[in-house]
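Chapter review: from sequence to fold.
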Amino acid sequence: MKILVVDDEDKIRNIVRMYFTKEGFGIEEAANGKQALEKIKTEKFDLIILDIMMPDIDGWTVCREVRARSSVPIIMLTAKGEEVDRIVGLEMGADDYVVKPFSPRELLARVKAVLRRTARSPVNGENKENINAGTKVSVEINPETRSVTVCGQPVSLTVKEFDLIYHMSRHPGRAHTRDELLQEVWGFDYYGDTRTVDTHINRLRDKLNKVPGSPDIIRTIWGVGYKFEVVE
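The token string follows.
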């Protein structure tokens, strides 16, 4: 698999390259956000390791640009103790984060966990039927193409956003706890907490609600979690 490592520190890029190459990964490097965006436009990557604090174009901007055109998994590197960086990164569509300073072994574990979760996406399961939510307003979810359309308009979702709506749509009307969604969508080996679910649900809702006439198909169940509701 091919991974892009984006960090302005030569030492970090060298350590990641040496450690991950031994594990059989192909590594491309970018020393700043501009180089990263140029590589992303011309090459295909299986995952991106992205530092937040970089000169010129920071990691947040790169993440936002990537998410505008791709659902490739992103792991962000954040400064120690900077919780706001982690929250902003998740809100922009990052799949996970690692706090600096980190050990190469920890980063490798995170990378493998994210790639496993991506491989366990619903499209790889046995259930591949289209799901149509409602009769008055059309919301179509296609696991084969991993696409969602609302009122005939396509909605661009990240890997986890699609996995969330697909998982809940297969159990309409059922209340899902945050812990359940973490286990079913992110996997038992996920390092984050339940706030990750809230962040991704909010992003998913925002994208769905941008379509004129979009129904409120994801409801909050206070004290429990969320449910997918068919619009009759």
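Two observations follow directly from the output. The chain has two domains: 2-119, 125-228. Residues 122-128 have pLDDT under 50 and may be disordered.
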